[in-house]
């Protein structure tokens, strides 16, 4: 598993997120309470762009169909809702984030 620098610690303020491309993968990095987490940028349901979603605490909501994911685990908390239907979806991909000094590194 390789590791590469993607940003500096100060590039992502607390409670915010930022998207990156690393080794051909679209990744969304979050600063939650001073710790950094990374998941796949696109929802595993129908590839809604989570960087356009609503971040509340440690939950990101997909702007397409409302799926919600825990950014600290990638776990799907609520599946997509289409009209009266509530569906399930798989968990999002997690990536390990390392902090080395002021550098944020991601393991691919």
Q: Can you give a write-up of this model?
A:
This protein has no helices and 13 strands. The protein is mostly beta strands and 108 residues long. The chain has a single domain, classed as Rieske [2Fe-2S] iron-sulphur domain (Rieske Iron-sulfur Protein). Strands 2-3-4-11 form a four-stranded antiparallel β-sheet, with no helix packed on it. Strands 5-6-7-8 form a four-stranded antiparallel β-sheet, with no helix packed on it. The chain has a three-stranded antiparallel β-sheet with strand order 1-13-12, with no helix packed on it. The chain is elongated. The mean pLDDT is 92.
- Roughly how much helix do the residues carry, as a percent range? under 10%
**Shape category:** elongated
Number of helices: 0
Q: Low-confidence segments, ≥5 residues, pLDDT <50?
A: none
CATH C-level: Mainly Beta
CATH architecture: 3-layer Sandwich
In total, the number of domains comes to 1
- Helix/strand-derived category reads mainly beta
Task: Supply the CATH superfamily name.
Answer: Rieske [2Fe-2S] iron-sulphur domain
Main sheet strand line-up = 2-3-4-11
Largest sheet properties: 4 strands, antiparallel
CATH fold type: Rieske Iron-sulfur Protein
Beta-strand content bin: over 45%
Alpha-carbon Rg, integer: 14 Å
Mean pLDDT: 92
Series of secondary-structure elements, N-terminal to C-terminal: EEEEEEEEEEEEE
The total strand number stands at 13
